[in-house]
Structures are given as structure tokens and as C-alpha cells.
């Protein structure tokens, strides 16, 4: 399936549309610290970057909002948004262009971000959160190539290493029907242009998001952390479990300690 996905991305001539649970690696909840073995899917992202740079292919990506936790579960049991912003995702894709095409000028990259790359969090008419304040998540793994070929399945593009299943539909008529019933209304509600700022993407091209040691920028903003913490507390109380607040870190030292404990635990099991 990995080779098939790459072949589909490389075959695109006009547009690639993706609706994904997330694209960045799974993190320690409340941080941007990737779990052991969890990395950015460089091959997929490089294929997207190549399509944008060499063929001016448009790439549209809709993602779960960070920290979108299904009702009744805690953040360590299920979380549809791994914590990355749309700017993070856009910057990582543009970084692959820099690596593959070292002569690419910043002015050209800026133009591509503005004209060809559109990344957003999913929304409905009411916004990106439900009435109880929980943000909207998406379990979909779905993409469309040139509005004529579709993939729907269980495989995330970020590293997950699970047994996966999916269906590729190489039929323009069926793909158009899927777009009319699903993609077009979802994208119309979700894409507002507010989730990605071109300058923020350009400023983020030198950030190392693969680092294993957290820094101050790895910790979620106070407001986002507060929302995730409140959601975890409410869900824990509803399920009669011990509060999950311990999984949300308020400093570098707490996040680093948790990451080290998880790494040591993994090594012990191996």
C-alpha cells in the first residue's frame, strides 16, 4: 500500500485532496514530543512536495483538530489530533521541497504556499468545536487524485505500523459522487484560510520537529492545554477513572520526564 500511495501521489497532474486523522507523528499528549519510533512520513510528504514544485499540483488537506478526544475516553486511549498545527504540517511539506530541490528560492516557496498548498482543521457550520467545547476530530483516511481516483481505508499516513485495509476506486464517476456527497460540503465548511499563515510557514522551515527532547515550543498553548485538560477531567469523571490531568504537561521538565519514562518502558519490553 505504501508503494501504491506514492504512485498515486506521483501520478497527480492537477490536485490531491486528503482528509486525514492527522499527518504528524503521535505525540505525548499535551506536547509536540513524538513517541518512540513515531516520525514524520517523509516519503509521502516528499511526494506531495514534488507534485507541488514540479507540476504546480494543488494539495488540499483537512485534519482533525488537535486533542480531539472521543467521548468517554481519556487522551492516552484515543486522540484523533496528534497535536500538530496546520502551519507545522505545511512547513514540513515545504521543507521536503527544499531538501529535494536545493536551488528552490524562498520567493518561489512562498508563492507555492500561497497558491498551491491549503491545510485546515475540520469544521462544521458551528465552528471547530461541539456545544460541550470538545474539538472536532476525524477518523477518516481518505484521499482523491485529480478528482478521478479515490482511496478510502484504515491506513494513516503517519507512522502507525498496524495491519491496514483500504479500497482504491479508479473511476471518475464514482469519485465525483463521493466528492459531491462528502468532500465538497466538508471542505466548504472547513477551509476558511485562517489555519495557515504564509509567513508563519516560512518562519517555521528551520524548526526541527523531529527532536526527541522537548523545548518551550513543544508545550501547547495555555488555552489549548486548558481545553484538553478540562475535556480529560470531564471524561475521566464520566467513566469513573482517575483524572487524566497527569498526562498534560505544563513545563519542559514534566514533558521530558514523561518521554524518558515511556522510552525506558518501551526498551524494557523489548
Describe the protein's architecture and organization.
Strands 3-2-1-4-5-6 form a six-stranded mixed sheet, with helices on both faces. The chain contains eight helices and six strands. It has 270 residues and is of the alpha/beta class. It has helices at residues 2-11, 42-55, 86-100, 106-115, 172-190, 198-203, 222-239, 252-269, and strands at 15-20, 58-63, 117-121, 141-145, 149-153, 166-170.
Q: How many β-strand stretches? A: 6
> Which word captures the global form?
globular
Succession of helices and strands: HEHEHHEEEEHHHH
- The N- to C-terminal Cα distance equals 27 Å
Structural class, please?
A: alpha/beta
Oligomeric state of the chains present here: single chain
What is the overall pLDDT average? 82
Topology:
Elements: H1 2-11, E1 15-20, H2 42-55, E2 58-63, H3 86-100, H4 106-115, E3 117-121, E4 141-145, E5 149-153, E6 166-170, H5 172-190, H6 198-203, H7 222-239, H8 252-269
Task: Note the main attributes of this structure.
alpha/beta, 8 helices, 270 residues, 12% strand
Amino acid at each position: 500500500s505504501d508503494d501504491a500511495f506514492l504512485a498515486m501521489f506521483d501520478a497527480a497532474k492537477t490536485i490531491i485532496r486528503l482528509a486525514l486523522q492527522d499527518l504528524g507523528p503521535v505525540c505525548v499528549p499535551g506536547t509536540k514530543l513524538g513517541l518512540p519510533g513515531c516520525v514524520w512520513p517523509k516519503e509521502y510528504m516528499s511526494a506531495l512536495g514534488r507534485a507541488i514544485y514540479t507540476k504546480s499540483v494543488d494539495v488540499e488537506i483537512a485534519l482533525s483538530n488537535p486533542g480531539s478526544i472521543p467521548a468517554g475516553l481519556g487522551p492516552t486511549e484515543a486522540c484523533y489530533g496528534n497535536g500538530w498545527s496546520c502551519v507545522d504540517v505545511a512547513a514540513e511539506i515545504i521543507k521536503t521541497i527544499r531538501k529535494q530541490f536545493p536551488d528552490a528560492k524562498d520567493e518561489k516557496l512562498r508563492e507555492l504556499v500561497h497558491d498551491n498548498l491549503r491545510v485546515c482543521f475540520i469544521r462544521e457550520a458551528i465552528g471547530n468545536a461541539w456545544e460541550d467545547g470538545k474539538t472536532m476530530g476525524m477518523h477518516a483516511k481518505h484521499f482523491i487524485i485529480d478528482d478521478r481516483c479515490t482511496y478510502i481505508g484504515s491506513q494513516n499516513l503517519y507512522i502507525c505500523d498496524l495491519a491496514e485495509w483500504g479500497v482504491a476506486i479508479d473511476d471518475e464517476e464514482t469519485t465525483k459522487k463521493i466528492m459531491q456527497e462528502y468532500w465538497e460540503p466538508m471542505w466548504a465548511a472547513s477551509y476558511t484560510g485562517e489555519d495557515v499563515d504564509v509567513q508563519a510557514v516560512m518562519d517555521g522551515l528551520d524548526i526541527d520537529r523531529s527532536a526527541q527532547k522537548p523545548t518551550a515550543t513543544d508545550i501547547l498553548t495555555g488555552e489549548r492545554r486548558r481545553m484538553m485538560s478540562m475535556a480529560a477531567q470531564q471524561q475521566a469523571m464520566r467513566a469513573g477513572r482517575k483524572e487524566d490531568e497527569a498526562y498534560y504537561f505544563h513545563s519542559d521538565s514534566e514533558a521530558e520526564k514523561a518521554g524518558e519514562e515511556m522510552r525506558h518502558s518501551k526498551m524494557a519490553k523489548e
